[in-house]
Amino acid sequence: MIPAEFKYLFPSTVDEAVRMLAEEGEDAKVIAGGQSLVPVLRMRLAAPTALIDIGGLTELTGVRDDGDSLLIGAMTTHYEVQRDHLVQDHALLLKLVTDTIADPQIRHRGTFGGSLCHADPAGDLLAPVLALDAVMIIAGPSGRREVPASEFFVDYFTTALGPDEILLDVRVPKYTGWSAHYEKLNRVAQAWSIVAVAAAVQVRDGTVSAARVGLTNVGSGPVRAVDVEAALVGQPASAEVISEAALRASSGDGYKDNLARVLTGRALTAAVAG
Amino acid sequence: MTATAEPEVGKARLRKEDARLITGQTRWTDNIQLTGMLHMAVLRSPVAHARITNIDVSRATAMPGVALVLTGEDFAAEQGSLPCAWPITEDMKSPPAPAMAVDRVNFAGEAVALVIADSAYHAADALEAIDVDYEDLPVVLDLEEALRDNDLVHPDLGTNKCATWIFDSAEAGAGTNVEDEIAAADVVIERTFRQQRLIPAFMEPRSVVVDSTAGMFTVWSATQIPHILRWMLSAVTGIPEHRLRVIAPDVGGGFGGKLQVTPEELLCLLVARRMGRPVKWTETRTESMLSAHHGRDQLQKITLAARRDGTVTGLKVELLADMGAYLRLVTPGVPILGAFMFNAIYKFAAYRFECTNVFTNKVPTDAYRGAGRPEATFAIERMMDELAVELGIEPMKIREMNWIKHEEFPFTTVAGLTYDSGNYEAATARAMELFGYDELREEQARRRASGDVKQLGIGISTYTEMCGLAPSRVLGALRYGAGGWETASIRMLPTGKVEVITGTSPHGQGHETVWSQIVADRLGVPFEDVEVLHGDTATSHKGMDSYGSRSLAVGGTALVYAADKVLAKARTLAAHMMECDEADVEFASGSFSVRGTSTARTLGDVVLAAHVAHDLPEGMEPGMDADATFDPDNFSYPHGTHLCATEVDTETGMVKIVRYVAVDDVGTVVNPLIVDGQVHGGLAQGIAQALYEEATHDEMGTLTSATFADYLVPCAADLPAFLTDRTATPATSNPLGAKGVGEAGTIASTPAVVNSVLDAVRHLGVRDIEMPMSPERVWTALRGREDSGAGEVAAGGLGSIDAQGGQS
């Protein structure tokens, strides 16, 4: 790889990283696992003046139990998310989604937070994070702030993260006992989803008591399928209800609209089957 | 000639070259570091067709580490024209092909300027400081539109038509007149198929290093063709051939993509000559996709005539073949290699092939795994299915009715080739059995009856190909500029070890292993005692390199003959040493003995005696070396039966291969493991054409599939477990009985997959789906119940950023 020249910085604390980011100005860029940024650098589609490598910030790594929610460190790799017991028990959807990301090499390098900050609408983690009502915990020069996922994803490759801010953790409410499924259609294993659907459901006595559905790569950012969720809650977890609800994933006539409906039906069916 | 107790030929040996290749503990071109070496970077045109009105290099020249910035103007007087070795017709139009554009660019990706700097980084940085002004010219992209000559790629030629090449069986005396057969036929089927443009996508990007110390030019290149490259570079630059040495060190794949004399090889050589310092160029992946030659890209109009009972009578092929902007080494000949293969294994009475080569403002096309033959095989195997559907005859039955029977070999085809051997019945029977053909047909019927979301299809490809390129006199008759022989040398070293020098140039095939197996058997020496040298014109002084599944059938044969020469000399010397008549000398397991006695000398004893030369027979030269060159009389004709079952998801259009059986007849097999590997890789590439890969352009002619995020090369996870088996009908054209296996999988598999997908959805009203059969195209076809060549939705990722920059 032959990127343009940049300054390389390796902070050892979050505060140091935030300070460096402020000092280096708008053309500096934070690098986490590098799985999205490095290809961009390699093709010289971006030429940041400085890279601030947050790979040394160990406090951003790992998943912590925080009462009603989990705190997933931004630098937690996909591989670590896949194998984490807290994620398995309380946010199964995230584990199932992460299982489908790229290949083992990339899952060992790529990070949970890095994927979210890159905000590629075809990225797998955006829709489930949105659907699960996650909250982004962000550090900047004026301290810390929290941004709900619904406000974090702004547009193609654009988030609410300021140029001087770093994503620290993602707070994910616990979905203990929910079942989930990620239905992804991609042409080859390493290709992005054409469309994918992330679904988590809570079924009590045969009735859907709660549902979360997020759509990947149907717009400029992740889409929460609120109409689908509404059509499910309080209804029997039956094939008829699911078929009816899935139709509300999209009203359009195009290929992706069709996929949104078909894959929503399949995701919900698999989720309900547990 | 019998050798060790357990013959090496036929043994599934692990490849001796793999450890170093897989771990990278070897010399690739890009690893080479020379003292004082400079680095070259290439600025490429972002536009497909334009006049260059100005190039300002002043900023770039002043950048740190920059030694020199050069434009096409600087090389205009000395760069000449890149060679095309295959003028297919006397009146073929061949525009000058500058290595670097001088005043106009004809494809996006064409070189327009060079930076030579002290590091690859500085060279890449300075590229961004070169300002080029382009004045856009009309872009010619579509083949049929190009033929109208409204806008011209090369105005000086006055047309976009490069050449038209015709074979007619009636004119050639090989068959009847195709128009008569069409007029008299019960059934005439006419179809048009598009062979999409593909990118060879070899693993190791191209790389060149040139050193010009003391007026001797050494060129290291990641090439398939060091010998041809030396010849051509000498011809283009005027550097005397004996002052040029070309080395292909270990090379990481080619698939025809490195069967080329590239602009960058020539430019590196010119830069090294001008500067008197070593220079290196290594491309990025995107650069490779934007500028290394592409493959396929044909529009095929096929007319098939048959009788009501299913007997085929006539075949008419009308092709348009996209040359791209220039003719590279064998660009115009690629479709011609397919001319002899459309009739395939079937007994047509009449055949006519007419191909018009066309210029467009795209990357030049050239050889890509199969080169002409996959296109032909696809067309005929699709047509046999169309005929079967039309007549309501089982698709395997209609093939069987028409193919050459086992007892009819040797068989001279309507295209004028003589197939020496083959057994289509045996390969087909084995494939049907492995596949569970009847059971799958039953399963298919059940799914159709129940309206299953996932419909099942079965696709057949009973292919043959011509390889072992090639008899030199045939190449001459086809106006190709070189011969098709191959050479090998054996040097017996004084300690009994063996050096083999081959004129073939392996780039992943495993020649070192296979050549060692052949020599071990022939000479009765241990496999481990053989070293195979290749790819360096200083050690391997002549050869025609590796492509067209030729290395074993042609180069392996030369090796056998060289070994026979060694043995003949050793036998004479052994007789002298044992003081017996040569006729009484027997050779077995590496040892000469006098028949009926215990007197014996090992080959090692004899080699040492030859080397010290203390007591040789009168007139015998010292040493024990031999050279042999083999020019085949005929091509070899691998064949086989491939069966593919696919599941088509009718709701999403997704295709999944659920079973794939390949039974190939590649003649005698030296190493079954390597043959399996070749088949697996070939299948992956053929399946990729059917389902995944396509070079796409926007309306301005910019390649929009210039990364592996956009150009979908499948990996192991995307492919099924292949069931492979073989029948072995030896080739009669060489003593090994080998036919070649490098391209078989690619040639056979594409139509098997496409036939299978269409078989799954034809009852739903779908007649055709263009390749690659993406989920969206399949879904659109199912929804529209019509032919589908719909475009793609963006799949996101890098593709939705902007991946066209060629200067990375």
UniProtKB/TrEMBL annotation, chain A:
Domain FAD-binding PCMH-type positions: 1-177
Domain of life of the organism encoding this protein: Bacteria
Assigned keywords, A-Z: FAD, Flavoprotein, Oxidoreductase
Keyword Coiled coil: no
Keyword Disulfide bond part of the UniProt annotation: no
GO molecular function term, any single one: FAD binding
SUPFAM superfamilies assigned to the protein according to its UniProt record, in alphabetical order: CO dehydrogenase flavoprotein C-terminal domain-like (SSF55447), FAD-binding/transporter-associated domain-like (SSF56176)
UniProt-recorded name of the protein: Carbon-monoxide dehydrogenase medium subunit
Organism per entry: Lentzea albida
Gene3D superfamilies: 3.30.465.10, CO dehydrogenase flavoprotein, C-terminal domain, Uridine Diphospho-n-acetylenolpyruvylglucosamine Reductase, domain 2
TrEMBL record, chain B:
Gene3D superfamilies with a match to the protein in the record: Aldehyde oxidase/xanthine dehydrogenase, a/b hammerhead, Aldehyde oxidase/xanthine dehydrogenase, molybdopterin binding domain
Protein's UniProt keywords contain tRNA processing: no
Residues covered by region (Disordered): 789-808
Annotated InterPro entries: Ald_Oxase/Xan_DH_a/b, Ald_Oxase/Xan_DH_a/b_sf, Ald_Oxase/xanthine_DH-like, AldOxase/xan_DH_MoCoBD1, AldOxase/xan_DH_MoCoBD2, AldOxase/xan_DH_Mopterin-bd_sf
GO function terms (MF aspect): iron ion binding; oxidoreductase activity
Cofactor(s) demanded: Mo-molybdopterin cytosine dinucleotide
Ligase found in the keyword field: no
PANTHER family documented for this protein: ALDEHYDE OXIDASE 1-RELATED, XANTHINE DEHYDROGENASE
Protein name: Carbon-monoxide dehydrogenase large subunit
Organism name: Lentzea albida
